[in-house]
Design brief:
Length: about 425
């Protein structure tokens, strides 16, 4: 048995470059065993062709190939994390375990349980900030309470930010000889209980960032960065992305700050996972209409921009951000269907699904969130076409029959739906 090894646990940081906890693991004085656990508590609910699993799997395979060039391997495991760690403790003489922090409620609970188990084995755990520039307690109000409105949070974030300090990169290459020398057979996707998905994650691109705000609202242009799945699973370093945004485009940097804002909201107010951030909206009487919900899910509402967005999502796992706002607002305010239904559907379909942002944006759309669109702000899906797809390019791509007789009539009339929404919200708040 190898003496005194260090284990590095990959999670939402699927890269060897500029990886905080990996850097410190490689400098721990021990040989490093790199592992990844397909967590059954997470993956059991997923379909066998989930494209995110395919994306993770292919990313892990690339890491394994690189590790093999160092004479090492990636140990890929599957199971409930506590059970997996019990087996690892029995098989290896582990002295230290390193991982990067995750701020979601499930991950926090899991990491506490694993750390407690390791402590009983006299194994020390070392957790590091890696997926954010500022974590939950680093940007607070003067009274040490969390910000619940974005703009003051952003201003304070920028005040704290030091380009040189906060975008310094962690070297993980010069110590590559510290990886444990062993050969592990990389499992097939089928052995892990999955099949390869036909839906592919697009490459990200940062070439057009200088004009980001000029085109970001126009879905037909398809010129967004496509960065979010890579950030979600940590294939890129947030430090590198923020440094690039800081030097290139302030609006794009603001989007990265929004990500951290919603992460700290989720950390400080975990109730938002299932409840309205603003409890005064608890009295909104939602229409739990499964037939209407299905029309929305399948892109058959009779509103071309809404339908285009939903069909793009179902086919590709992507939806343009402007269209996300329109489709979400339509579900909550035109159809008066609970935002939690829409949030769950997006969570199932989006390649870049990330709990904090998905929840924060859905509560924004519903008017129930911390820094939300007011309840009386109701997008008109028809005038939105004039603003953002006036030549119908995006709509024609996804709803080619929108001018044909077989295209459904609008399932609700905008003016009537708006009045109904205002009445329901006012009643709930009275």
């Amino acid at each position: 048995m190898e003496n005194n090894i260090t284990v590095f646990w990959f999670r939402r940081d699927l890269r060897l470059e500029d990886n905080t906890a990996l850097h410190f693991a490689l400098n721990s004085g021990n040989k490093v065993l790199p592992i990844f656990i397909f967590d059954e508590d997470i993956i059991e609910a997923l379909p066998e062709t989930d494209p995110r699993i395919t994306f993770i799997y292919n990313s892990l395979k690339e890491i394994d190939l690189l590790l093999k060039s160092f004479g090492s391997s990636l140990l890929v495991l599957k199971g409930k994390p506590l059970n997996v760690w019990k087996k690892l403790c029995a098989k290896y003489r582990i002295e230290k375990v390193y991982f990067n922090k995750d701020y979601e409620p499930y991950a926090i609970k899991r990491d506490h349980q694993v750390s407690a188990l390791l402590k009983t084995q006299n194994i020390t755990t070392h957790a590091y900030k890696d997926q954010v520039i500022f974590e939950e307690h680093e940007v607070l109000k003067a009274d040490q309470s969390p910000y619940t409105v974005y703009t003051p949070y952003k201003n304070q974030w920028l005040k704290h930010f030091d380009l040189k300090v906060h975008t310094a990169l962690y070297d993980c290459v010069s110590n590559k000889s510290q990886f444990l020398e062993f050969q592990s057979t990389f499992p097939s996707l089928e052995n892990l209980g999955f099949m390869e998905s036909d839906i592919q994650v697009k490459p990200y691109q940062l070439n057009d960032l200088k004009a980001y705000e000029a085109y970001r609202d126009y879905p037909a242009l398809d010129k967004t960065s496509n960065l979010s799945p890579y950030l979600r699973f940590g294939l890129v370093s947030i430090r590198k992305m923020v440094a690039h945004a800081h030097q290139t485009n302030a609006v794009f940097l603001s989007e990265l700050i929004w990500r951290e804002f919603f992460m700290q909201i989720l950390f400080h107010f975990p109730k938002v996972v299932t409840q309205n951030f603003k409890s005064k909206y608890d009295n909104v009487i939602w229409r739990h209409d499964e037939s209407d919900f299905k029309k929305w899910c399948t892109g058959q509402t009779g509103y071309p921009l809404v339908d285009a967005g939903m069909r793009e999502l179902n086919k590709t796992g992507y939806m343009h951000n402007r269209v996300r706002m329109i489709t979400a607002g339509f579900l909550c305010k035109h159809l008066l269907i609970d935002w939690r239904w829409g949030e769950a559907y997006f969570a199932e379909k989006l390649l870049d699904f990330e709990l904090a942002s998905n929840n924060g944006n859905w509560q924004w759309a519903a008017g129930t969130g911390c820094d939300a669109a007011p309840y009386f702000r109701i997008f008109n899906p028809t005038t939105q076409i004039k603003k953002f797809d006036k030549d119908f390019e995006y709509i024609k791509r996804w709803v080619p029959e929108f001018q044909e007789l077989n295209y459904p009539q609008p399932m609700v009339e905008h003016k009537a739906a708006r009045e109904r929404c205002l009445q329901v919200y006012r009643h709930a708040l009275s």
